């Protein structure tokens, strides 16, 4: 995404009325699905935030997960310098948000010069939907979506950031939308970043079960908050001929569903 303009901590009474938010777009959204980034901007601006997208790099998660702590730290330093001026850092991805909040402090452990900055930075970084609900207090969404959806809880969002009820709360309030829970919604889809590359057979077995559970709901659309997971599940659903679209939850919440679904070349009628 091109650069565009649009007190830390979750205490709403202690922060300015117009919060200045830096949007950490993430690599996958930037290169694969920019519409998610624009949807995130719309949701944040509709909630009263001033949104900016500074020049940014990868958060360092692939390097961190591969054991390259030196590169991960170098990238983390770049991210911190770029986003430190903002009241909050918001990420439309649980995995990248989890990297910042959970693993950045690990990378700088024992460094008295960097660690206080890193801890403060991690404390003001939030996954998008969690920020809308937990920090801004958003309780309803004006957009409409006519159809049934099912929601997948990505591992990092759920286990590192505690994101589960927040997206369901906003989806349940949307006009026209019917939320149908799948079996084992909180079980891994098999993506796991580099995991699916290192262990493709295991990954495929996991996503096959996930695809069956998705299809069994009868929902027409699969939603989640992590693009990597969505790409993995969308690919399996399409290869098996299951008639389910996959979209990032931000796109639906923002009412921006004109783009074809993930992995598809044209929008379905």
Task: Characterize the structure shown.
Residues 2-13 have low confidence and may be disordered. This protein has helices at 27-31, 34-46, 61-65, 69-83, 94-107, 115-123, 128-135, 155-161, 165-172, 195-198, 200-216, 227-239, 249-253; strands at residues 20-23, 50-52, 88-91, 125-127, 144-151, 175-179, 221-224, 245-248. The relative contact order is 0.14. The strands form two sheets. A four-stranded parallel β-sheet has the order 2-1-3-4, sandwiched between helices. It has 269 residues and is α/β, with parallel strands linked by helices. Helix 5 (94-107) packs across helix 8 (155-161), helix 7 (128-135) crosses helix 9 and helix 11 (200-216) crosses helix 12.
Key attributes of the depicted protein:
13% strand, 269 residues, 46% helix, four-stranded parallel beta sheet, alpha/beta
Structural class: alpha/beta
Q: In what order do the strands lie side by side in the largest sheet?
A: 2-1-3-4
**Mean of residue pLDDT values:** 92
CA-atom Rg in angstroms: 18 Å
Poorly predicted regions are 2-13
Q: Biggest β-sheet, characterized?
A: 4 strands, parallel
Number of helices: 13
Distance between the termini: 28 Å
Hey, roughly how much beta strand do the residues contain? 5-15%
The rough form would be described as globular
The portion of residues assigned to helices is 40-55%
Give the topology string: H per helix, E per strand: EHHEHHEHHEHEHHEHHEHEH
Number of beta-strand segments: 8
